[in-house]
Amino acid sequence: MLSRPEFVGDEESHSIQSAGQTENSHNGTIVVKIGGSTLGSHDTTIEDLIAVQQEGTQPVVVHGGGRAVTDWMEKQGVRTRFVKGLRFTDEPSLDIVVAVLTGLINKQIVSRALSLGGKAVGLSGVDGGILQAEILDPDLGYVGKVTQVNTEPIRAAVESGFMPIIAPVAIRLREGEATLLNVNADTAAGEIAAALGVEKLVFMTDVEGVLDSSRRLIPRITERQARSLMQSNVIAGGMIPKIGACLKNVGEGRTTRIIDGRRPHALRSFLDGASVGTRVG
Fold this sequence. Notes:
By secondary structure, the chain is α/β, with parallel strands linked by helices. The chain contains 9 helices and 14 strands.
């Protein structure tokens, strides 16, 4: 079993912030990625997003929905297959991915936000060319690697007072032809956050945060430690794209967090200053 590395504690992370500034101040734009695994009947993330929106924070939401996609594939008799941890996406699979993510899941989240008194608009990475991509790996089929992010539609929605809720489907433009591509939602959130230059990128997931080899929560990891944990397979599976997205957004004045979305009002607790989940960077 691997020994526990010396990780940076929250006490040190607070001490290196500039005087009078905390990582959880309520201002600016935040990107929050929510997953299908945490969107149950008792989930409070949408409620938290509406509350902070009404207080002046500008949330941009990217959502997944892999479990729902798998369920619909089974209903349609389409076999689910994963290659290198990513969903193999052929043409029948792509049709289901697009329909479920940009239709069913996206509109369920938007309607939930509206029912709570929020102002929200549903988008996908295809709309306005928000996410432009190329084929990531021919062995994965229609899975995209984001090559460009057009932030104009996102900024337009935010400036109009709406919370964009974005499904991770991208467009490939080549020689006058357009192809839709399935993009990992964590990766999409990281690319959008980097393009917007947001202060905070938060991943709401179904675990406490990043766990060490003894399954204990790591309050904070540096970029170097994160890469080491991935190389040693302590960080594996669905946590890898989350860490990759966090590492793309580390820097002075920027905060990345992986939080347990199953906890009531976990997002609000973090934004109010509580030490929850794992800070990366």
